[in-house]
Design goal:
mainly alpha
Length: 126
């Protein structure tokens, strides 16, 4: 399951390409969030169940931590290109994205607009 999450972030990187700006990043990440809460909804639900199970399973916690470290290693250069200088800023952005997905999976909003939230968070963190 964690490999699927990394694959989603790899997909984001491929869509962004080597040269991007904040607007392109927001649009691309927004599409990824929509995909993971739309056609990829079942995978997202399963991933969330794994996260809940990790609360009582040390081996799963370790695997999630390893995946998070890989994600942070991948995301730090992207974050720096967006003007986010601190690792904490990247963690905040990831937490917001996670929250958007949890809310959309748990209570789908037909007017879901992850791009606006992502742009606002980036403006606040940069």
């Amino acid at each position: 399951m964690l490999e699927l999450e990394m694959a989603a972030w790899d997909s984001l990187a491929a869509e962004l390409g080597p040269a991007f700006d904040i607007e392109r990043f927001v649009d691309t990440l927004g599409r990824l969030v929509r995909r993971l809460t739309g056609e990829g909804r079942v995978v997202t639900q399963a991933r969330l169940a794994v996260f809940v199970e990790a609360g009582v399973n040390a081996a799963l916690q370790q695997r999630i931590n390893e995946a998070q470290q890989r994600l942070l290693a991948w995301g730090e250069p992207v974050a720096a290109a967006l003007g986010l200088r601190e690792r904490r800023s990247l963690l905040t952005l990831l937490a917001v994205v996670e929250g958007l997905m949890v809310n959309q999976v748990a209570n789908p909003d037909p007017e879901f607009d992850p791009e606006s939230a992502i742009a606002a968070v980036l403006r606040g963190l940069a």
